[in-house]
Amino acid sequence: MAPQLEIYVDGKGSSFRTAERGYVRLSISATSIDQAQAAHAAQSAIEKITTAIRALAIKTEDGRAHPDAAVTAFTVSPRSTESRFQRDKDNRQLPKQPKEHVVRASAEIIFRDMAKLAEVTHELATMPHVSVLGTEWRLTDATYAELEREARVKAIRNAVHKAQDYASVVGREVVAVEIKDQPSPSGHDMYHLQQALHQQTLQQTLAQQHGSGLSAAVVTEGLTLEPKTITTSAHVQAKFVSKEEDGDSEDGGRARKRR
């Protein structure tokens, strides 16, 4: 009887989808030595953003995002106020000068319509007291769960094919007896990092274009925010052993020859 064959292999698989949502983070900030003036400037910016976004975030009667809504979610944080000393060009405090008052808030927007995302992001980036902190591309929970499942299935199939390749060369058949899921870099998180760097470059470009006196139409036409591909990966380690009938059939063949 031939000794049992053991094969250990890694299996890897990945799946991808085009992003279905664009998540935009905003910062609203106004500074003045007059606290009321800072509060008014910040509130005015918040109201402009709210008016523009609510027109895109239409709801159904039960309060859910309408299937045709360009924006599926929108939130604005409460305002916060900070008082601080003014500073000179060397960053030294100026205690004799009137204090500055800083009023801040933040907002988050989730876009379904990517064309609207590009258009609105440009408008927000050029709005006084508003900064676009970053844009992330996302999938819906249902799609991402499906993507992960596809990647796992591909990883297991990859392991099976490897084991079968090795076994077939030596004339054996194998079955899986152990599968271990292994941590694997998703590509989703890596893309978020890449997108943050891309967004920083985008903001710098917008600032340069806006400062050069180009019209909004020219800047918008030159601005592309195409949804990116999101990839998820899976990695497994598997153990395969030869089927018992391999050895039995070999012994049986020898016995028949002896007869």
TrEMBL record:
Source species of the chain: Staphylotrichum longicolle
Biased composition (Basic and acidic residues): 81-99
Residues covered by region (Disordered): 77-99, 240-259
Record's protein name: Uncharacterized protein
GO biological process: DNA damage response
Superkingdom: Eukaryota
